[in-house]
Design a protein that fits this description.
The chain is globular, with a radius of gyration of 12 Å. By secondary structure, the chain is an all-alpha fold. The protein has three helices and no strands.
Amino acid sequence: MRIAWLVWLVRHFNAYGYSQGLLRAAIGTGAVLVTAALVWFALHRNRPLAVTAAGLTSALGIGWLAFH
């Protein structure tokens, strides 16, 4: 499931920026947050690493959407 999600996200990487309207921005932000949650669950055995990786994924993803 995680790999399928990442493959889908890569295929649609340019389609969900904040400059493309409110609906697409909300979908893009949701996709970033789901990806961060999957990162968290993948690394949940090491809590400090999971928190850091999920936070970094969220920050980088939302930052990319903001400047896209």
